[in-house]
Amino acid sequence: MPSWAHTHNETLTLNGVSVFLFFARFLPGNSKKFTMSAACYVLFSKILNKFYIGATNDSVEKRLEKHNAHCYGNHRYTAAATDWEVFFALEANDYPHAIRMERKIKSMKSRAFIMNLKQYSDLRSKLITETSTLLFR
User: Fold this and answer.
1) Average pLDDT over every residue of 80-97
2) Domains of the chain
3) Helix (H/G/I), strand (E/B), else coil: 62
4) Chain centroid offset of residue 96 CA
5) How many CA atoms lie within 13 Å of 23's alpha carbon, on the beta-carbon side?
6) Helices (H) and strands (E) in the chain, counts
7) By the 8 A CB rule, do 27 and 18 touch?
8) What is the C-alpha to C-alpha distance for residues 47 and 49, in angstroms, rounded to an integer?
9) Which one in 16, 94, 100, 124 has a CA-CA gap of 20 to 30 Å to 109?
10) pLDDT digits (tens, 9 = 90+) for 44-57
């Protein structure tokens, strides 16, 4: 995989013909880890003993730093603590896919569901598949 490529999915229309494009890039210095162009993530705070579910088209690590630094305001849910940690993150096809995964997890309103998502890869795969764009076209 060339180091100059970028993780990105896109549909381009040229002269009435739709073309699906996919690019992938490894992180510099780490050939086994991909950057995520979009992701759904779950944070956990030990102080609050609570989860936060979000979606981003930025890196999850940068998003975590922003939550812990209260960049989204002192009145936001994550502002109640500064010890948020990434519980897990799921790579999405694109940002709308990340939002659909976020909404599905939130709709379950279940701590057990979140714990099971982390523990069982088949449950994560099912969530990713059920919320993929192919089902929403």
Assistant:
1) 94
2) 8-25+37-136 (3.40.1440)
3) helix
4) 10
5) 11
6) 4, 7
7) no
8) 6
9) 94
10) 999 999 999 999 99
